[in-house]
Design brief:
The protein is of the alpha/beta class. The chain is about 55% helix and about 10% strand. Pfam families: Hydrolase.
Amino acid sequence: MMPLTKLLSRTVSSCFSSSNGRPFAMAAKALQHCRYSSAAAQVAESETEALKDYADYRRSLYGHITHKALLVDAVGTLVLPSQPMAQIYRTIGEKYGVEYSEDEILHRYRRAYSQPWGKSRLRYVNDGRPFWQYIVSYSTGCSDSQYFEELYNYYMTDKAWHLCDPEAEKVFNALRKSGVKLAVVSNFDTRLRPVLRALNCENWFDAVAVSAEVAAEKPNPTIFLKACELLGVNPEDAVHVGDDRRNDVWGARDAGCDAWLWGSDVHSFKEVAQRIGVQV
């Protein structure tokens, strides 16, 4: 690879020998690019060093681990829908007269879901049926009660969901053996527990904090504080992992917890465990 000084020298020389009348501009642009690249590398190196220093500081508090507890978001982090929502709404709805296309169902779903839920400050209260009846009816144009029940019950089964990380069980077992407590923290109705049981993962966790039961939805700090209370740890002892920057990262930090963004800060539960200081 050519040394940077020689590369710059050749670039500048070629600029001055060019006939386009803009030698100085070309040379300046090359030099500026190198400065930006160097600055970006220095920032990345500084961030890496800061993370290492922070991890070392946490381990000085707790021994070989950085946190006493791991809080995990459900949908988008622990579990994922097995089929697109609009496809399921359309497929189940055909025998009930649903005629909207999947694209139209998705568009109407997003519009309905983004609107304030006027009957409550919470979307999910207890089993969440009133909220979901509104969503399904608006999304599909079908208010048939049998259709709603079939769709509602489908999302309590292992057909509807699958684990995001196939190594999750092995990682969580290793974390618990190392003394790290685990909890699910989710904006969900009371169907979350049946979903976890259907996926055979409820016993992986020491606690489950569901917004419908806590009466607080992320990013409200209350739900994170409740999870810490259930685990018997202080908020500063816990790290939360989730895929939504606002709900998961900002909400957890407002509660006093550490937080990592799934898909950005961490990409697998094995990586989460390694950052905590547990080898899998």
